[in-house]
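Sequence in, structure out. Go.
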Amino acid sequence: REAPELPIVERRNWLIHQHYIRKDYDTCKAIIKEQLQETNGMCEYAIYVQALIMRLEGKIQPSLELFQSCAILNPGSADNLKQVARSLFLLGKHKAAIEFYHEAARLNEKDWEISHNLGLCYFFIKDFQRAEEHLNIALRINKHDKTFMMLGKVHLLAGETDKAIEVYRTAVEFSPENTELLSTLGLLFLQLGKYQKAFEHLGNALTFDPNNYKAILAAGSMMQTHGDFDVAMNKYRVAACAVPESPPLWNNIGMCFFGKKKYVAAISCLKRAHYMSPFDWKVLYNLGLVHLTMQQYASAFHFLSAAINLNPRMGELYMLLAVALTNLEDVENATRAYEQAATIDESNPLVNLNFAIFLYNHGDKKATLDQYQEMERKVNRLRDNNGNFEFDTELMDMAQKMGAALQVSEGLVWTKPGKDSKSNGNSAAAAKAPGAPLGTNQALGQAMSSAASYNKNVLLKSLPCVFYSQLLACRTTGAD
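Output:
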């Protein structure tokens, strides 16, 4: 018996498929053209593959029109509707894509891809509740790493960090060798200050992929936060081979040099990061800090002003700007900058201490007392929230001297148990000359010492990063 001949419409489908999966697109398109001429444009599979090829070539709109033709030829195919929705999604028409995905879901309710992409569309229109709902449906149908990643991102943007961590933990149990999941979970623990768990997950990520630059940056930033600058630099050397043009990397390297007091090298690295990412306020913040340290106040003013334009809701930036203006002898604008810093900031006592020193040196005792009392309120709040919170030694000494100069209480909140004699000695020394200018360089000194304590907030960028990379950015790693 002879083999039956295939209908003319489908005669070359097998050949089209063979060339398509081999990525021989030119031959494939030539066969498709012949097939469509023979069938007067009625061959659904030939049109479908032609649309796939056009989309791979970046011709999204023409591919959309071809997929719509396939949907007309075969309206009962969920695959055709999924491809129409995918092209609409790539064109940024998320609401229209949602309609087609819902139509496809009615034809095939158990399709993981449809539920996942619906969650993705709702994510982009910022409907996080529905995005979470459809992503959970997708996970019930079939567990995929990318769905876990997307669901975690939805929770993070909705401000639900605990739920995001739970999702990533479940994902790591399902896929324990996925370095992206491990590094993301490590970054989240790092952001929450759980360094042991962060180091564990980042270490696992580096075990499976020693060149994972996100995990290297995160691990390096942890070491940098704890003052291990040489070890952190060794980590960054490995990352530099993988991503030599990474702004967060050069930002972190610059702050390592800053920690080692190699200020010229720090500025060189930070300016390289700034060249690569001119609108990253964290790099500008660090540049301003290093120039303040080098007493280059005009340059510091330039970088800090630029950082404020990009991030006008951060009190520490206004405080550092006020320090620069004070040293440039612009008292009026320095006062305004301190006032803005004190208005915006709600938790950092350093802002109010520096403002109090500034006011004291300019003879305004009443306003100085107000700022000192506000500083003590912030200190009490920090200690109530975290009993183990440790303040910078220089900050404590200066606060005690300020309290003695203002003839207020000895500032019990600043006194360390078992060191009363030392505290009293400092207070007595300050009381000998209550009229002498206090802390001429104190604001700068505290700004510099705050770099050490503040580095944990400045160190990692996610993102991406990011990090997100964009959501987990710390100042010394550049931010997400």
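Check: The chain has 25 helices and no strands. The CA atoms of residues 55 and 63 lie 6 Å apart.
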